[in-house]
Amino acid sequence: MSAISETSPPVLRRVAGLFIWRDPVMSISVVVVLILVVMALAAPWLGTVNPGQLAAGPRAALPSAAHWFGTDMLGRDVYSRVVYGARVSLVIGSAVAVISVVIGLVIGLVAGSVRWLDGVIMRIMDGLMSIPSILLAIALTALTRGSVQNVILAITIAELPRVARLVRGAVLTAREQTYVDAAITTGLPLTWIMIRHIMPNTLAPLMVQGTHIFAHAMLIEAGLSFIGAGTPPNIPSWGNIMAEGRALWQIKPYLVFFPAIFLSCAVLAVNMIGDGLRDRFDPRMRGT
């Protein structure tokens, strides 16, 4: 045990160094996402104040030692609002990714395995895909009152068809394999074949698709909030912060710049992680 414990740190460092050397872009992206997650979780201890607290002092003040990112038109600290806004964007992005992947996996497995349901399910998915995601999300949020839960539901419904079609394609490919035919011949239940033999073939593309859904959901949420159809104005999200600062962006560009740069870094990092996972699972795509 002592020998293992003495040699483990160098081995771990060697593996970590090899991973960073082989894919530095993905490594940096993982670090950026981890920093954003830590920032969101530790927001109360990062020198922030109540993000909704109105101040009687100078409004739309420039960045200073007292207010690192300045203040908005209501005197609220922009730094605190940006830090707390990471919680909203990350929660919405992760929730949409997980829910859409899980539900899309079930729909895709059923559509690809049960032939008589395939046409019905896919026509419904095609109908949803014919509407742009942002327009479908706007229509769904307009039918409900603004809240984080309703925004998650609206974006999930808009992203669900793409996951279902991806899984269905993987299922149709796996269904033609010899081992699946052998399992059917032996009389195994369809549910067991789907879970044991077909579903593992869908996990790799699902992980890649999930990261892109994560990033896309954050962008859609920011767009919805920017036009007033997303989270309520009292919830500090990056989209709401940019929406509130657009009236003064020509003379006070920092009101839009800081939340925009955080959103851009988050979306870019998550997309780079997705590209790195794609290269891992499909080496033929490396470098394209």
From TrEMBL:
<feature type="transmembrane region" description="Helical">
    <location>
        <begin position="254"/>
        <end position="274"/>
    </location>
</feature>
<dbReference type="Pfam" id="PF00528">
    <property type="entry name" value="BPD_transp_1"/>
</dbReference>
<feature type="domain" description="ABC transmembrane type-1">
    <location>
        <begin position="86"/>
        <end position="274"/>
    </location>
</feature>
<dbReference type="InterPro" id="IPR035906">
    <property type="entry name" value="MetI-like_sf"/>
</dbReference>
<dbReference type="GO" id="GO:0055085">
    <property type="term" value="P:transmembrane transport"/>
</dbReference>
<feature type="transmembrane region" description="Helical">
    <location>
        <begin position="25"/>
        <end position="46"/>
    </location>
</feature>
<dbReference type="InterPro" id="IPR000515">
    <property type="entry name" value="MetI-like"/>
</dbReference>
<feature type="transmembrane region" description="Helical">
    <location>
        <begin position="90"/>
        <end position="114"/>
    </location>
</feature>
<keyword id="KW-0472">Membrane</keyword>
<keyword id="KW-1133">Transmembrane helix</keyword>
<dbReference type="InterPro" id="IPR050366">
    <property type="entry name" value="BP-dependent_transpt_permease"/>
</dbReference>
<dbReference type="GO" id="GO:0005886">
    <property type="term" value="C:plasma membrane"/>
</dbReference>
<comment type="similarity">
    <text>Belongs to the binding-protein-dependent transport system permease family.</text>
</comment>
<keyword id="KW-0812">Transmembrane</keyword>
<protein>
    <submittedName>
        <fullName>Peptide/nickel transport system permease protein</fullName>
    </submittedName>
</protein>
<keyword id="KW-1003">Cell membrane</keyword>
<keyword id="KW-0813">Transport</keyword>
